[in-house]
Amino acid sequence: MLPDLTEALQQRKLEGLYRTRPILKGPQAPHITIDGRNFLAFCSNDYLGLANHPALIAAAAEGAQRYGVGAGASHLISGHSWAHHALEIALADYVGLARALLFSTGYMANMAVVTALVGREDTIFADRLNHASLNDAALLSRARFVRYPHLDLAALEKQLKTTRTRRKLVITDAVFSMDGDQAPVAELLALCQRFDAWLLLDDAHGFGVLDAQGRGSLYIPREVARDVPHLIYMATLGKAAGVSGAFVAAQAPVVETLIQHGRTYGYTTAAAPLLAHTLLASLQLMRQDNWRRERLAQLIARLRQKLQTLPWELLPSVTPIQPLLAGTSQQAVRLDQALRERGIWVPAIRPPTVPQGMARLRISLSAAHTEEDVDQLSAVLHDLASCC
Prior knowledge:
The protein has 2 domains: 13-48 and 290-387, Aspartate Aminotransferase, domain 1; 54-288, Type I PLP-dependent aspartate aminotransferase-like (Major domain) (Aspartate Aminotransferase, domain 2). It has 14 helices and 14 strands. By secondary structure, the protein is of the alpha/beta class.
């Protein structure tokens, strides 16, 4: 078996698909040290610049003093602390839905929702560019798995119209993690209501960033939320929120079903309460610091304006995710390495994460970046375009 694995790994290297783990020294920030070298980084999902915020560091220390380090048990035994409880209430209020449930990761949250709500007698409809966690959850559920072309609601409507199963579940990213484009949430909700289908919206990259107050791709006033019982909203807490974990928000019966039947909820130790305590501080900053989203929008506009004349296609996106198409995996890796030689870290994204021939640089912006950071990246990319 070992020779087979070694040969497969070598082939992966030849195809430009081999991945390594860079070692980060110090906190997440626009200027970082990786493997002993200093870089200007456009690679993290710390969209609001909160991952190293002094208020969150102080909250983490206070949380450790108050709750200790580990939860010690699952939520259903004795691991569900007051910090978890308070955060769930605050998150539900923030996004305008009845209840929220915490998970250790977004992957676990999607797994719980899909496998708890649908099974062999049901059908899942998925956007073709969905995150791997949604696809894996669909396969694990054993429901019929139907994929529709990216953002093609006409195709989805035909599929919903001709499907007769016990339950229907539409699953989609709200902001697509590799393209930075957005799902048409209002239209999806209307379709799901029309055909009596659930909608699971994965807003990992929209929560904290979109909406004037950072409430994500879908903020629903409470008086409206009562009229959308088919909606299930998932967002992660390790990106814009700057900490760790995820949550699912929905109507009370959905949340209770996840507590009773969500395997990735019930069969794992609860996340450390100090993280929940820290996230309460993060949520407060997300509510009040609108300037972070304003700065982020300005940086996005500045970057897009400066990169328009490059030979590589900049995909349309108004989010912090700005993909620059390179073509083959080898081309993307060469561009990645050339940037590193000049002190800039932008990751090359290759198949199977993206389709063949669509390898790219995934530029991620943060409110912690400056205009000078953006201008430096632009200047180096233009230099590479003229000489390489």
